[in-house]
Amino acid sequence: MSFNEWRFCPQCGSPLERGEVEGQSRQLCFNPPCGFVRWDNPLPVVAAIIECVDRDGVVLIARNRAWAEGKFGLVTGFLERDEAPEDAVAREVREETRLESVGVNLVGVYPFTRNNEVLIVYHVQARGEIVLNEELAEYRLIAPEKLRPWPQGTGPALRDWLLGLGLPVPDA
């Protein structure tokens, strides 16, 4: 059983087993009245390339409290039910940094297979005093031309954004 597998059916409590549905291996409940299928769809996550427009356009990257020292990334969060992605990313920026979004533009949509997520990444122009919430340990403000994208997660989106600005980007 892999790390992300479920042991029991959430509907009837019977053990889940592997089987094929629509050409894919899925976890299934073989209890006839139930028939639950675990589709294991990826979760939608919004991410923000935060440009601080009142600080000469530097980009805010942050370190989550759960991450190792020196590991920084974009502000991210889960899309809530009935929430538009552009509203979700502005909410996450406000919740995690207290910055107010003044412009939100889609950069792109990226698979993040390792976490079974779909990343919806935005360039967010924001302003205000930076106050981190309890999720974040620290932040850095970096000029766009000094940013170095990382190879996975939100890194490819940051790379695309920098290329869109016409900045040279070294290979990750």
UniProtKB/TrEMBL annotation:
Entry keyword set: Hydrolase, Magnesium, Metal-binding
Cofactor field: Zn(2+); Mg(2+)
Domain called Nudix hydrolase: residue spans: 42-164
Record GO biological process: NAD+ catabolic process; NADP+ catabolic process
SUPFAM superfamilies hit by this protein: Nudix
A GO cellular-component term linked to this record: cytosol
Domain of life of the source: Bacteria
Similarity field: Belongs to the Nudix hydrolase family. NudC subfamily.
The protein's name: NUDIX domain-containing protein
Natural source organism: Zoogloea oleivorans
